[in-house]
Amino acid sequence: xxxxxxxxxxxxxxxxxxxxxxxxxxxxxxxxxxxxxxxxxxxxxxxxxxxxxxxxxxxxxxxxxxxxxxxxxxxxxxxxxxxxxxxxxxxxxxxxxxxxxxxxxxxxxxxxxxxxxxxxxxxxxxxxxxxxxxxxxxxxxxxxxxxxxxxxxxxxxxxxxxxxxxxxxxxxxxxxxxxxxxxxxxxxxxxxxxxxxxxxxxxxxxxxxxxxxxxxxxxxxxxxxxxxxxxxxxxxxxxxx
Length: 241
Ligand code: NAP
Fold this sequence. Notes:
Elements: E1 5-8, H1 14-25, E2 30-34, H2 38-50, E3 55-59, H3 67-79, E4 82-87, H4 102-130, E5 133-138, H5 151-171, E6 176-183, H6 196-200, H7 210-221, E7 232-235
Parallel strand pairs: 1-2, 1-4, 2-3, 4-5, 5-6, 6-7
Helix pairs in contact: 1-2, 1-7, 3-4, 4-5
The protein binds NADP nicotinamide-adenine-dinucleotide phosphate.
C-alpha cells in the first residue's frame, strides 16, 4: 500500500459517504470532509474503523478559499499526503433562469466548481512528486446535456468536466490521473424531492445507489486504472445512452 491517504469532500452523506467507505475498504486511510453534518461524518468514520480501516472527520466549507490548505495540512499530519482526491461535495439551487439570482448562481459555482478547482490546485503538486495520484471529480449527466431549471448546476458540472480534461493532460506525465464520474439519478438527500416521473427518464427504470457510484470511483482510484485519464464515466442507468 502507498504511503498516503484519500480525501472525500462531502463525505458525511450520500455518494460521498459510500465513496469514503469504499476507499477505506481498499486500504486507504480516509479524510471524511463535511460542512454541517458533524454527527453524520463521525458515524461514517465509526463505520470505517469498525471494519478495520482508518478515517478522520474534517470540517470545512469547500467554497471557502482557505479550506484546501486546512484539509490537506491536517490530513498530512494524520495519514500523510493526499494521493486520492474525490471532489464530491455539491449543492443545487434549482430555478428557471430568470429566477436564478446572483446568490444562487455564486453558491453553486463556488461550491461545485471553484471549491473543486482549488482543492485540485493544492493537491496536485504532492501527487506529482509522489509520481502517483488520482483525482476523481463527481460531475453529473447535467454537465453533459441540458436540464431545465439547473443552469447554475449544469454550468458548474460542465466546468468540472472541462477542468478534468485539462488538468488530466497537464499532469499525465507524472502518473497522476484525473477523471470525472457523472451520475444520473441516485437515491440521496439531494434527489429526495424527485418523484416517479424522474425514473421514467431512466432506461433501467430505477434510481442508482450511492454504492454503485462509489464502485466506479473505487475503480478509478485503483492501480489498475492507471491508463484511464481525462474521461467522464457516466453512471446513469442509460439516461445518456
Ligand atoms: P447529498 O446527499 O446532498 O450530500 C451532499 C454532501 O456534500 C454532504 O456530505 C454535504 O455535507 C456536502 N457539502 C455540501 N456543501 C458543502 C460545502 N460547501 N463544503 C463541504 N461539503 C459540502 O448529495 P449527493 O446526492 O450524495 O451528491 C454528491 C455529489 O454527487 C454532488 O456533487 C452532486 O452534485 C453529485 N450528483 C448527485 C446526483 C444524485 O442523483 N444524487 C446526480 C448527479 C450528481 P454536510 O451534510 O456536512 O453539509
